[in-house]
Specification:
Layout: E1 2-3, H1 38-44, E2 49-54, H2 58-70, E3 75-80, H3 92-95, H4 97-103, E4 104-106, E5 114-115, E6 121-126, E7 129-134, H5 152-159, E8 173-180, H6 186-201, H7 206-211
Parallel strand pairs: 1-3, 2-3, 4-8
Antiparallel strand pairs: 2-8, 5-6, 6-7
């Protein structure tokens, strides 16, 4: 899913993912809708692969595209994509060299959630609330949340980890694989069901099925 927070192809109306108070041709006084969260919807629909990347980080984007392609099952990869005509710079804080290190959190399986130019900041869970800590001051690396992309419940926290005025500290935006699990696909289970039926009852006779039980012979 390409997310540029605007309806670019239809000339710049606000979209479901636009931030509140977005001034566009269709919202001259600012949009009033709460922005749609695609990854939260995917988690709620029990998708088996949920991830996010950005267009201006080709190395990371290539890795996420490869992983989502290899995954067998329902998957969603959200890609932050700049619309340089109608919404230029919407994701600039996550892509520009001067701000990227402090504003992005790259998720890596089995590794602590660290960010910052010197990797001197981390995310720690206070109950179910993520908070930013400074390594060596507020906490050690051992205190930092370690990412597990197979943890459904922590993935629910990550997909909703946007900056919130109610939180005491500014949160970075996560990128990477939030959640992955392996579950039998519909077509695999259906084929298994067909194979088991054939093994038990033999192959069907289509002509016999079409004729049915009531047959009239016209002379």
């Amino acid at each position: 899913m390409f997310n540029n927070q605007i309806y670019g192809l239809t000339k710049g109306q606000y979209s479901p993912t636009s931030e509140k108070n977005k001034v566009t041709k269709s919202t001259p006084l600012g949009s009033i809708d709460h922005p749609f969260n695609p990854l939260a919807l995917a988690m709620g629909a029990d998708a088996t692969f949920v991830a996010r990347s950005m267009d201006r980080d080709p190395k990371h984007l290539q890795e996420m595209l490869t992983r989502s392609h290899k995954h067998k099952g329902s998957s969603l990869l959200e890609i932050y994509q700049n619309c340089n005509i109608f919404n230029d710079g919407a994701f600039e804080m996550y892509t520009e060299k001067s701000t990227k290190a402090d504003e992005t959190l790259f998720l890596e399986q089995g590794r602590p959630l660290l960010f910052g130019a010197a990797k001197n900041k981390g995310i720690k869970l206070d109950g179910f609330k993520p908070v930013v800590v400074e390594i060596g001051v507020d906490a050690s690396v051992d205190d930092v949340w370690v990412h597990d992309e197979f943890d459904f419940y922590k993935a629910q926290i990550l997909v909703r980890m946007f900056d919130d005025a109610k939180l005491e500290s500014h949160l970075p935006r996560p990128f990477g694989v939030f959640y992955e699990t392996h579950r039998a696909c519909y077509e695999d289970v259906m084929q298994m069901q067909v194979d088991e039926t054939i093994a038990a009852k033999g192959r069907g006779d289509l002509d016999k099925l079409l004729r049915g039980r009531e047959v009239w012979e016209i002379k």
